[in-house]
Amino acid sequence: MREVDIAIIGGGAAGMAAAVGAYKAGIKDILILERNDSLGGVLHQCIHNGFGLHRFQEDLTGVEFAQRYQDMVAERKITYMLRTFVIDLNKDKIITAVNPKQGLIKIRAKAVILAMGCRERSRNNLLIPGTRGAGILTAGTAQRYLNLDGYLPGKKVVILGSGDIGLIMARQFVLEGVSVEAVVEVMPYSGGLPRNMKQCIEDFDIPVYYNSTVSKICGRERVSSVWISQVDENRRPVEGTEFEVECDTLMISAGLIPENELTEQAGIAISPVTKGAVVTEDNQTSVRGIFSCGNVLHVHDLVDFVSEEGEETGAFAAAYVMEDEALSVSERSSADRTCVRIKSGNGAGGVVPQLVRKDTARETVSFMFRPKAKFKDVKITVTSQGKEIFSKPRAAVSPGEMCKITVGAELLRQAADILEIGIQEAEHV
Ligand SMILES: Cc1cc2nc3c(=O)[nH]c(=O)nc-3n(C[C@H](O)[C@H](O)[C@H](O)COP(=O)(O)OP(=O)(O)OC[C@H]3O[C@@H](n4cnc5c(N)ncnc54)[C@H](O)[C@@H]3O)c2cc1C
């Protein structure tokens, strides 16, 4: 059994940043466990720009962004194991992993940071009827084929979903000479960043069908066409509205699911809304000493926020190893009972963190959430028993962009046991 101070599961942006954050906070005995053959996670296949505008004030590609953190890990001589797949984690912070060199390995850590990222929703998750020919793939797989393996997945593509990944891939397909026949979006607006709508769709005149879905896939050996139908208020296809679009590929980009199988194995409480762990203001889960950050905690839009959250979580885990570990179980559970619970209020979904300890040592706590619709001229409010205790104006918010509000911890300490974070709208668009 190898023993380490901090073990980090996943070496993507979140995991690398967590390692750097923990190191800066004073813990040097850190081990990153990564199943792929390099650090970087999904960033490796992101050859487009738009990464690092906040973190480095530079417009980097995903690959360049990953390299920055790989260099920081290397400069600090932080240890990592590649091609190492973590298959189990328990409440005692014992990790079981496999790799081709050592076979089965066990690691006991004083603190564990979960940074496993997320996976894409597939055709099976969406239950799209029709045949099962070749040519149906997720955006991440298409991106991998194009950018890492050098294959063109198709020549005539329909894209289901207009989140950032779908938009980026639409543009890349056009640049590779592929005809993008349609982008189909079930909501009345795009789920992506406004800049991606402009730069990836409008600039290339790609047709977008809102309030619509792919209701059938046709073609025996390979996809030959799909049906596009309008949807009702329950997002179900409306019969009689369908029309057929010829294509050889259907690319699905319809949401991401945090990879929390290990989290569940460890008995950690999961939020039914974010599908990530329920955490306190230090991103600590319901199991003491196990922390979570990045896309495995909640799906982020920008890697800058992933790495910021990762660095902070690394520092929290380091503080835990250095100080909190000395607390007895009873001291810890009594601290748990004095948590303020944070609920999503009007227009807001999936607020993280969901709990703030009243005895928190932090001076401020930042909350992140996704707006449920597009709103203009709003204020983000924090209310306690129906009374507004803090607010921040915003010109516009949309589901494609995460919102963040930072609140003084003193305010939170004085608040009632349940707080709501929501959006007060002036105009709903
Ligand atoms: C197509 C696309 C376009 C994007 N465009 C932008 C953009 O323009 N700007 C921007 O800021 N952001 C963008 N992003 C988002 C950004 O890339 C991600 O938010 C960020 O990289 C996620 O980092 P992460 O570490 O949380 O997850 P990941 O990068 O997914 O890393 C998780 C890591 O954990 C490893 N892992 C998982 N399970 C295990 C296990 N059991 N054992 C060992 N290892 C494990 C995985 O192999 C992986 O390396 C884009 C993402 C995509 C996919």
Which descriptor suits the 3D outline?
Answer: globular
**Fraction of residues in H or I helices:** 10-25%
- pLDDT below 50 for ≥5 consecutive residues: which ranges? none
Strand content: 25-35%
Number-wise, the strands total 28
Helical element count? 10
Distance separating the two termini: 57 Å
**Structural class estimated from helices and strands:** alpha/beta
Main sheet: strands, sense, barrel:
7 strands, mixed
Give the overall pLDDT as a whole number: 93
* Ligands, ions, cofactors: flavin-adenine dinucleotide
C-alpha-based Rg, rounded? 22 Å
Describe the structure.
This protein is of the alpha/beta class. The protein is 24% helix and 34% strand. The chain has ten helices and 28 strands. Strands 1, 2, 5, 6, 7, 8 and 19 form a seven-stranded mixed beta sheet that branches. Strand 3 and strand 4 (60-61) form a beta hairpin. Helix 1 runs parallel beside helix 2 (62-75) and helix 5 packs parallel to helix 6 (194-201). The N and C termini lie far apart (57 Å). The structure holds flavin-adenine dinucleotide. Flavin-adenine dinucleotide is lined by residues 9-15, 33-36, 41-43, 46, 50-51, 62, 85-86, 115-117, 140, 143, 164-165, 168, 259, 262, 294-295, 300, 302-304, 306. Flavin-adenine dinucleotide (FAD) is lined by residues 9-15, 33-36, 41-43, 46, 50-51, 62, 85-86, 115-117, 140, 143, 164-165, 168, 259, 262, 294-295, 300, 302-304, 306.
